Amino acid sequence: MDRIVLARKIDRIGKEVLIKGSPLEALCFQGGRVGSLITLTDSEGNDFRGRVTRLSREEASILIFDAFSSTTESSVEIILLQTLPEKERMELIIQKATELGVSAIIPLKSERSISLEERETKQKKAHRWKEIAVKAVRQSRRARVPLVGEYCLFKEALVRCREEGLKIILWEKNGENLKNIIQRFRPKRIYAMIGPEGGFTEGEVNLAKDEGFIPIKLGQRILRTETAAIALVGILQYELGDLN
């Protein structure tokens, strides 16, 4: 419901289109109002820019003023499983990962990470996560708002990754070379798990390996969790997606 998809083809720029039903719900979910600039997709998968000229409970009118030469959504589906960092770094990760084109962000608790309860005691920010993703979509002119999943424990996160796809977990101690893994698999869906400051424990890595995760490294330097998340997503999009 987060993508504005039309049931018909858009054949020219400067045309006004009416949207109702699910596309209208998606527009409202994205905070659309009269004057808002939005990205929408026609029935043939082409992306366009439009401006909301009229909005009611029943329908909205969108003036189409530009067309993208290619889709604004990546061909690779990246699900970022991010252990919860302290302070406002989770908000930064959600913003930048959304701009880079992830499909979903799952916040989780590992043995060495802060819990949501601890973090919310210091500063209540989790209620803004979906709003941050929506704003990042507008800024980056994406057509789809990524899912910001419910906070969960490490083992629960593993259960959410049982569909087909490449599964990687960042482990600075003994991970494989990322480039080799990418070249070997060339996946269309990737589950990427990022640890907290101090990394994952060996026990957690072994549990992840039992679920099909491959430990990988990003060079020899130790990166902060937000740097690792942003860098990893950027590399994956460059090698497999639309950052080229």
Detailed description of the structure:
Helix content is 32%, strand content 25%. The chain is an alpha/beta fold and 244 residues long. Strands 5, 6, 7, 8, 9, 10, 11 and 12 form an eight-stranded parallel sheet that branches. A four-stranded antiparallel sheet has the order 1-4-3-2.
The backbone outline, from C-alpha atoms, is globular
Q: Could you report the average pLDDT, rounded to the nearest whole number?
A: 92
CATH class designation of the largest domain: Alpha Beta
Q: Strand share of the residues?
A: 15-25%
Backbone structural class: alpha/beta
What is the CATH T-level topology of the largest domain?
Answer: Alpha/beta knot
Largest sheet: 8 strands, parallel
Helix content: 25-40%
Got a strand count?
12
**CATH architecture annotation name of the largest domain:** 3-Layer(aba) Sandwich
| Total number of helices | 8
Distance between the termini: 29 Å
Instruction: Enumerate the spans where pLDDT stays under 50 for 5 or more consecutive residues.
Output: none
* Fourth-level CATH superfamily of the largest domain: SPOUT methyltransferase, trefoil knot domain
